[in-house]
Write a structure and sequence with these properties.
The complex is a heterodimer of chains A (414) and B (69).
Chain A: H1 3-6, H2 25-28, H3 34-38, H4 41-50, E1 53-56, E2 62-65, H5 68-75, E3 81-82, H6 109-116, H7 122-143, E4 148-150, H8 151-156, H9 158-168, H10 175-187, H11 193-216, H12 222-228, H13 239-253, H14 255-270, H15 272-280, H16 285-295, E5 300-305, E6 309-311, E7 314-316, E8 321-325, H17 326-329, H18 364-381, E9 385-387, E10 394-395, E11 403-405, E12 407-410
Chain B: E1 5-9, H1 19-23, E2 28-30, E3 36-38, H2 49-56, E4 64-68
Antiparallel strand pairs in B: 1-4, 2-3
Classes of the chains: A alpha+beta (414), B alpha+beta (69).
């Protein structure tokens, strides 16, 4: 580890407010409440029935749009809503350690995003696909003989970690380090500033080493691609910009897809009819993946209100944060008939799992490929599986939702 | 059936979700940034009309126009 990785956070952790249990979801919601973590869908239904936009005084003031339309309006309104802070937390520290383009607003957003888009096109993902299939089978080899496994710990977590490491050109074995940072930033970091800062510093130190190595000699990987990229004036992007983009790829590319694959296997484990249908009709996989993305969208983003405005008839005041819940939008029955039902061959599906507007997920094609391959390879090797009644499914807390413990039994019940 | 269909991707709205390309690869192509464009002048060959409507109804950004000529 470099000195910067060992540096202590420059600000002492401020005192964190308590999170008393929620008694009034409509006026005092809290996305870190254990009931939200366990099963948010009935809570969202209740909030949506009350208003297209609800507010809580928690997190120093935060709105939640509850309908597809209100989410769409906010996602497309970069004048009133900034992306400079994209996690809703108990504190609003100074804006440092940005991760362009996710934390960028116009006009800086477009060049930062265009830097990242070419390596993530569907054609680029096709080249990566054989390696991801091999990763899936290497993982399955390790536990298939046991007749059971915690799929979140042994499978769904490692697929995106190893895939992104492979793309970046860093050792796949460093994956455990990435998982630790992501946990400290996205889960512990909501309430623990010191944990977040420590992880950010460690990550910066780690990538600084890899950037410096490539200054000596370029390698054929995404880090070198970013270092070789030029902006519209023909200038290279700064080390800080490259570092920020690497931080983004790691944070955004791992627990999100980990969650999406995990929720998909969870659904198939408890829904034998859908599992059997996918086995009998593998050509349904593309629409099934889109439908699983809709029904179990992992990612809720955030915005900061910069100017007062009105969304779906509701006044929205500057200074508040917004939880931009794509998952709640995707369960809006006004947009999706039978919104709470998984329909593997759903024909019309404008789901917002990857966001809407200029911040559309840059890794969406990677995520789709990883989900498709991970489900296909699992079904080939383990066509029959179910939730282990002796175990317990545990869901992540925060703004990326998926199973973090998923005990499964292989083979037919009986 | 009406006349022949013509499609157009609005470049101001397209954000590169690439759903159209996945559903109707005969009708759409992607540029280096992954944003979608109609192939040729957007005329939909006979037999691909359903795919044109399917692509349109799955675009999250409402970026695809389908018109009957």
């Amino acid at each position: 580890m470099s000195d910067s990785a060992r540096a202590t956070p420059d600000a002492a952790a401020p005192e964190m407010p308590d999170h008393p249990p929620v008694t009034d979801w409509i006026h005092d919601f809290d996305h870190t409440d254990p009931r939200w973590t366990e099963d948010p869908f009935p809570i969202w239904d209740q909030l949506r029935a009350a208003s297209p936009v609800v507010h809580t005084d928690r997190f120093l003031g935060c709105y939640l749009p509850t309908t597809y339309e209100s989410v769409r309006q906010i996602a497309n309104d970069t004048e009133h809503f900034s992306s400079r802070r994209v996690i809703v937390r108990d504190v609003r520290p100074e804006i440092t350690n940005t991760a362009p383009p996710i934390t960028s607003d116009p006009p800086d957003h477009k060049p930062a995003k265009q830097l990242l888009l070419p390596p993530f096109t569907p054609d680029a993902m096709k080249k990566l696909e054989p390696r991801v299939r091999a990763i899936c089978n290497e993982l399955i080899d390790e536990f298939i003989g046991d007749g059971k496994c915690d799929a979140a710990a042994r499978y769904t977590k490692h697929v995106p970690v190893r895939a992104i490491a492979h793309m970046l050109g860093i050792p796949e074995k460093d994956g455990d380090l990435f998982i630790k940072w992501i946990h400290e930033i996205l889960e512990l970091g909501i309430k623990d500033e010191a944990s977040l800062m420590r992880a950010v510093h460690e990550m910066a130190g780690y990538f600084a080493i890899h950037i410096n190595q490539r200054k000596q000699q370029r390698t054929d990987d995404l880090i070198s691609t970013l270092m070789d990229a030029r902006d519209k004036n023909g200038e290279p992007f700064s080390d800080m910009h490259v570092l920020g983009s690497l931080r983004l790829l790691l944070i955004a590319g791992i627990d999100t897809t980990w969650s999406a694959i995990g929720s998909s296997l969870w659904h198939l484990a408890k829904t034998p009819a859908d599992r059997e249908r996918l086995l009998a009709e593998p050509e349904l996989m593309p629409s099934a993946v889109e439908e699983l993305l809709r029904a179990y969208s992992p990612v809720t983003m955030a915005r900061e209100v910069m100017k007062d405005t009105v969304i779906s008839g509701c006044p929205v005041k500057a200074g508040n944060m917004v939880l931009l819940s794509f998952p709640a939008a995707n369960r809006d029955p006004a947009m999706f008939p039978d919104a709470d039902k998984v329909v593997l061959d759903r024909k019309e599906n404008r789901h917002a799992a990857f966001g809407l507007g200029i911040h559309r997920c840059v890794g969406s094609n990677l995520a789709r490929m990883e989900m498709t391959v991970a489900i296909e390879e699992w079904l080939k090797r383990i066509p029959d599986f179910r939730l282990d009644p002796a175990g317990q499914v545990k869901w992540s807390e925060g703004t990326v939702r998926g199973p973090r413990q998923l005990p499964l039994l292989f083979g037919k019940a009986g | 059936m009406g006349g022949r269909l013509k499609i157009h991707v609005d470049q101001e709205k397209c954000q590169g979700h690439a759903r159209c390309k996945a559903l109707a690869p005969e009708l759409f192509e992607l540029d280096e940034f992954g944003n979608a464009h109609e192939i040729g002048d957007g005329s939909v060959p006979a037999g691909l009309e359903d795919k044109a409507w399917l692509a349109q109804s799955n675009c999250p950004e409402l970026a695809i126009e389908v018109v009957e000529e």
